[in-house]
Amino acid sequence: MIQIRVSDIKQFVYCQRVVFYNYVMPVDKKTTFKMEYGKIAEDKIDRLENRRKLKEYGLSSGTREFHKQLYSEKYGLSGKVDLLIKTDAAYYPVDFKYTTSQPHKNHLYQLLGYAIILEDIYDYVIRKGFVYLIPEEDAVVFDLSDDLKDETKNLLSEIRKMIHYQQIPPPVKSQAKCLDCEYRNFCGDVF
Ligand code: SF4
Q1: CATH no. for residue 15?
Q2: Distance 171 CA to ligand 1 centre (A)
Q3: Does the CB atom of residue 184 touch ligand 1 within 6 A?
Q4: Containing H/E element for 68?
Q5: How far apart are CA 75 and CA 92, in angstroms?
Q6: Of all residues in the chain, what percent carry a pLDDT higher than 70?
Q7: C-alpha span between 17 and 13 (Å, rounded)
Q8: What is the pLDDT of residue 130?
Q9: Is residue 70 one of the residues assigned to a domain?
């Protein structure tokens, strides 16, 4: 089975071609401001999170594990979740974002990817996850329904099929996404 990362699901939802370039036609990426800034922001995350309280997630108690490496053999899926909150009743994946804009659909699917792995390796149904917006200091909660998890499992099959048949997907519909894309030099049909 082709091994997939949770970040691939996120990118596939953003633009399928990004995953194609990563797996089928690896190319030198252009470093974007967004990538550089993301790295700097990550360095600050632990310090900030240590000061943060669980009540910001609407929780009264629980333990936190940072940068937890996750792997599901069953789904051939791996990923490193920024934070895993564990309570007696439930587990919650948390992804940190250094952005002032609200989370997008691809961020939801990233959480769903973590949820699929967590459900496989722990005896919990993962019903909610969070995207924490660092500049806003706001935890946005997402419902992680069974239907959405099934959709995400279907995406895994689509990604594997694309890699197996080496078929380049069409460019993303919203070409505003291309402006800050590290692969823009390779999408001749867009620019
Ligand atoms: S330039 Fe646009 S179509 Fe090409 S990979 Fe980036 S987002 Fe996708």
Answers
A1: 3.90.320.10
A2: 6
A3: yes
A4: strand 63-72
A5: 19
A6: 86
A7: 10
A8: 96
A9: yes
